Amino acid sequence: MAKSKSKAKGKYRFSFGPWNIDEGADPFGPPVRNPIAQSKKIKMAKQMGFDGMQFHDDDVVPDLDTKSHAQIMKEAKRVKRMLDNEGLKAEFVAPRLWFSPRTIDGAYTNNKARDRKYAIERTKVCIDINNVLNTSWMVVWLAREGSYIRESKNPRIEVLQIRDAFNAFLEYDPKLRILIEPKPNEPVDSAIIPTIGHAIGLGYMTCDPSRVGCLVETAHSILAGLDPSDDMAYGLAHDKLWSVHLNDQGGLKFDQDKSFGSYNLRRAFNQVRVLEEYGYGRKGEWVGLDVKTMRTQKQAVSAKHLANSRQTFLFLLEKVCTLDRDLEAQLIDARDYEELDRYILCHLMGLKY
Ligand code: 3MF
Ligand code: MG
What we know:
The protein is an alpha/beta fold. The chain has one domain (14-322): Alpha-Beta Barrel (TIM Barrel). 42% of the residues lie in helices and 12% in strands. The protein has 12 helices and 10 strands. The protein has helices spanning 38-47, 57-60, 69-86, 113-132, 155-172, 196-205, 218-223, 228-237, 265-278, 304-321, 325-333, 337-349, and strands at residues 14-16, 52-56, 89-94, 137-141, 146-147, 177-181, 190-191, 212-217, 241-246, 286-289. The strands form 2 sheets. The chain has an 8-stranded parallel sheet. Strands 5-7 form a two-stranded antiparallel sheet. Helix 1 (38-47) packs parallel to helix 3 (69-86), helix 3 runs parallel beside helix 4 (113-132) and helix 4 (113-132) packs parallel to helix 5. The chain starts with 13 loop residues before the first strand and ends with a helix. The model has no long low-confidence stretch (mean pLDDT 97). It binds 3-O-methylfructose in linear form and magnesium ion (MG). Magnesium ion is lined by residues 181, 217, 245, 290.
């Protein structure tokens, strides 16, 4: 567990997923690096000071849909042993519901009943894998729940279909907690659960709202035109921010997943601040870094963005802990926000104020 030099209130454990060290393919060009084996990625996580890993169900068991349940459990146990050997934990296992030919038009909100059934059964297998990896936190990114043209689905029914699917999962495993990861678009044009407010509202509609929370991802908030630290604060005010995917994003374009703080350091500072002021991590919440390797990175340095993002977080934590709160309070009291603005900038730049 990482500690700030100054006294931090939060307890920070860091994680990332195997997809965060990638081969550099994009919609316009092929891979530019060789794949790195899962076992190697787990070792790299340990070396870079991470405490755990995040997974998709088929990161743990590739080609999941073609295997028997017994085989899936056997392969999941192997990954658990690999983690144990490095002293790492699994933060969560998320169902990958956007690859199969059966989820082309959505998973829980697919217009075909047999395809919705597939998505629900697949998620139950994901819950079983979560149990083998000794985690009961399942992140659900609702990738294709939405539409490409508005008339193709009934949006009210879509919300109820997701609620019903979640109810089935909450009943399937009484220990399960669902963390909804909202994103407003990409791959679909219009997501049905686009923001953290929608995610939290949906949780309250389920049969056990106490077991449904959320994950805020920096880039997803920015894509929705929102401020990520405000989104995190909203989740925290509901005691429902159970994970974060920190990264960065330059405005309203494709989902960039840049290194944390690389685009807007002040915005990153405010995310760390809102977590620290809550005492984030004390209830077991993790700091996930959902950052992407730049396509231009060479093989040997294709994980730097992870180590850098973690370091930036710790650097900003130090900035949060050393902020002169008395001065800040005085400037707020005087309503001199120009001066407060200047103080924050000087503090972030390490300039004498
Ligand atoms: C997409 C994402 C996803 C989710 C992950 C969890 C591939 O924009 O952020 O990353 O975080 O799939 O299910
Ligand atoms: Mg994410």
